[in-house]
Amino acid sequence: MVFLPEFSQNVMQPVTHGETDEEALKNGQEVLELIMEEYQEDGKDLPQPKTFVFA
Fold first, then answer.
1. Main-chain phi, psi angles of 3, to 5 degrees
2. In 17-50, which positions are buried (b, 16+ CB within 10 angstroms) versus exposed (e)?
């Protein structure tokens, strides 16, 4: 599962997945590209990256 918390305040929580890690990563990249295009079209600044630590 790919989770994009930086964008959860402005759009529905962007989450994607895949049958394999590689597919999930590819799907996540596609979602991120679409969100970034939308931000650029709307003239919005991209949010700062967040770091999560899982114990």
1. -120, 130
2. eeeeeeeeeebbeebbeebeeebeeeeeeeeeee
Identity at 54, one-letter amino acid code: F
Whether residue 20 is predicted with pLDDT greater than 70 in this model: the reply is yes
Quickly list DSSP for the chain. Answer: -EE-GGGTTTSS--EE--SSHHHHHHHHHHHHHHHHHHHHHHTPPPPPP------
The arithmetic mean of pLDDT across residues 13-39, rounded, is: 86
Q: Is the pTM of this model over 0.90?
A: no
Cα dihedral: 28, 2, 48, 46 (round 10):
30
- pLDDT bracket for residue 43 (50, 70, 90): very high
